[in-house]
TrEMBL record:
Protein name, as recorded: Bifunctional NAD(P)H-hydrate repair enzyme
Taxonomic lineage: Bacteria, Pseudomonadati, Bacteroidota, Cytophagia, Cytophagales
InterPro entries: Carbohydrate_kinase_pred_CS (IPR017953), CARKD (IPR000631), Nnr (IPR030677), Ribokinase-like (IPR029056), YjeF_N_dom (IPR004443), YjeF_N_dom_sf (IPR036652)
Functional description taken from the UniProt entry: Catalyzes the dehydration of the S-form of NAD(P)HX at the expense of ADP, which is converted to AMP. Together with NAD(P)HX epimerase, which catalyzes the epimerization of the S- and R-forms, the enzyme allows the repair of both epimers of NAD(P)HX, a damaged form of NAD(P)H that is a result of enzymatic or heat-dependent hydration. Catalyzes the epimerization of the S- and R-forms of NAD(P)HX, a damaged form of NAD(P)H that is a result of enzymatic or heat-dependent hydration. This is a prerequisite for the S-specific NAD(P)H-hydrate dehydratase to allow the repair of both epimers of NAD(P)HX.
Subunit: Homotetramer.
Species of origin: Mongoliibacter ruber
Gene: nnrE
Binding site residues for K(+): 60, 124, 160
Length: 490
């Protein structure tokens, strides 16, 4: 689990880590540069390619100079554009400046012809986490100019102009890709900053997770290796009863498809027994669409105790609040609440304290807004999500890119899988089926949420390799088994 530290803590982290392992701050910068370059070489191997690196006065600029040297050694035609004088730059910047090889072209801003840079790969090393005010003067001017260029643009650590923990003010560099060191800065994970960040890559600089943990952050970025450890192991004598019996409630009226998606995905996630509550003609449709599931009528609501987990909401439509109230009161077990179940909760806050403790709520942004009111930006939304989870002792899965999972003990986890092709009708219903399935298999609510969200995103990534923009929710379901195979979960 990568702790996400606030920008202000990073200088302290660097210093204490360098001291602990007995390396200099320059050596840490060198590791960062090497990690960037090894990522870069996977995507840009054409050694004839031109690279322009814009280097600011701090350590982000220092990273840029180290990267300039390393890329030049690999045969790239590298130019650096400098802004401050040597004596006004950070100590490690100066060391890397002195190490710049002869072959690198140097320009002192404003003496640069942007025509030359227009056909090059642009690397933004102006400012990193040390930015402390909006861009102005020549930095504003250069970022505005670079933003007009059409070549590939890459930011080191964070796009220049973005603060690491708050909303951008004014202008920032528009990167196609951002390579952030060790962990993503919080600011890289919010929708308002997506156009600046582009595709996000995390470059390991070798600081162990356990070392980051000492800084006591309540926010983490979830990795595949974390998820692998959370999975329950089943043995050779396991039978379907060990994989849980769940009940899914929803799919009324014209929305029977929603609960079918949840049902099929629960089966694919490994549930032993999946029951679905259904009304009238939808029973047959469910049977035909997912013959492995058992379809139940109204009476099943009197037998909730026999289920290991419930998932309520996909396609439920408008229902009287009593339906939820009765369910909450007849079982103390955590359950998954999505879609229309959340809409009932939004209209009836008096139900909030009846939600069984440890339940998992999975709103998308609109559903979350109905629940907690409008937010002026995502940082505020994340705070509200955390408050809600703590206050009502539930897990709040706020869906979108980098879905966040807020916990009753005030922690917040950010998912690292998924992509834009998952923004398609029904993909949230798939997630509900997956999380309910894990909960029913005996995963605790945190692990069920984290594993559900991670595998959902990974299945989406796998499906999108062949389906891309044409991907539909069913494709995600079909790729759930591949997500287990990829993670070697048997
Ligand atoms: N573990 C890690 O993550 C590692 C991190 N590393 C790297 O270090 C980076 C952080 O470096 P950093 O602390 O030197 O800050 P950085 O962002 O270069 O800028 C500070 C300078 O800018 C100035 N300044 C600020 N705002 C300004 C503005 N709007 N307009 C104009 N000037 C402005 C400010 O001076 P001021 O004017 O405030 O006196 C100061 O001179 C980090 O992002 C990563 O790339 C790696 O090297 C090693 C491992
Ligand atoms: N751009 C994106 N990147 C990653 N995941 C996404 C993106 N857009 C949507 N998703 C995921 O797809 C799902 C969409 O859920 P939701 O909006 O409830 O869909 P529906 O209501 O149609 O079922 C969520 O799990 C969300 O995290
Ligand atoms: K930068």
């Amino acid at each position: 689990m990568l702790s996400i530290l606030p920008g202000k803590k990073i200088a302290e982290l660097d210093k204490s880590y360098a001291r602990e392992v007995g390396i200099s701050s320059w050596e840490l910068m060198e590791r960062a540069a090497e990690s960037f370059v090894s990522w870069f070489l996977k995507g840009f191997s054409g050694v004839q390619e031109k690279v322009f690196i814009f280097s600011g006065p701090g350590n982000n600029g220092g990273d840029g100079l180290a990267i300039a040297r390393l890329l030049s050694e690999k045969g790239f035609a590298v130019s650096v554009v400098l802004f401050s004088s040597k004596e006004n730059s950070s100590v490690d910047w100066q060391v890397n400046f002195d190490k710049l090889p002869e072959g690198i072209s140097r320009y002192q801003y404003p003496e640069i012809d942007f025509e030359l840079a227009s056909s090059a790969i642009i690397i933004d090393a102006l400012f990193g986490v040390g930015i402390n005010r909006a861009l102005g003067g020549e930095y504003l001017e250069v970022v505005n100019t670079l933003n007009q260029l059409s070549g590939k643009k890459i930011s080191i650590d964070i796009p220049s102009g973005l603060p690491s923990d708050s909303l951008v003010e004014g202008v920032a560099f528009l990167a196609d890709m951002t390579v952030s060191f060790q962990f993503p800065k919080l600011s890289l994970l919010i929708p308002e900053h997506s156009k600046y960040v582009g595709d996000l890559h995390i470059a390991d600089i070798g600081i162990p997770d356990s070392f980051l943990d000492q800084f006591g952050s309540n926010k983490s970025f979830v990795q595949a290796s974390d998820i692998q450890k959370m999975h329950k192991r089943f043995d050779n004598f396991s039978h379907k009863g060990d994989f849980g019996r769940i009940l899914l409630i929803g799919g009324r009226g014209g929305k029977v498809g929603a609960i079918i998606l949840s049902t099929c995905s629960a089966m694919r996630t490994g549930s032993g027994l999946v029951h679905v509550w259904a009304e009238g003609a939808s029973k047959d449709v469910i049977h035909i669409s997912c013959c492995e599931a058992m379809v139940e009528g109204e009476k099943i609501l009197d037998e909730l105790d026999k289920f290991d987990a419930l998932g309520i909401g996909p396609g439920l439509g408008e229902v009287p609040q009593d339906l939820l109230r009765n369910i909450f009161q007849s079982t103390g077990k955590p359950m998954v609440l999505d879609a229309d179940a959340l809409n009932v909760l939004s209209k009836h806050p008096e139900l909030w304290d009846l939600i069984p403790k440890g339940s998992i709520l999975t709103p998308h942004l609109k559903e979350f807004e109905r629940l907690t009111g409008k937010s002026s930006h995502h940082f505020e939304r994340l705070d509200k999500a955390s408050e809600y989870a703590v206050q009502h002792k539930v897990y709040l899965v706020l869906k979108g890119a980098f879905t966040s999972i807020s916990t009753p003990d005030g922690k917040q986890y950010f998912n690292s899988t998924g992509n834009k092709h998952m923004a398609t009708a029904g993909s949230g219903d798939v997630l509900t089926g997956m999380i309910t399935s894990f909960l029913g298999q005996g995963y605790d609510p945190l692990n069920a949420s984290l594993c559900g969200v991670f595998h959902h995103g990974l299945a989406g990534e796998i499906a999108s390799k062949t389906k891309a923009r044409g991907m539909i929710a069913t494709d995600i379901i079909e790729s759930i088994p591949s997500s287990f195979l990829e993670m070697q979960i048997d």
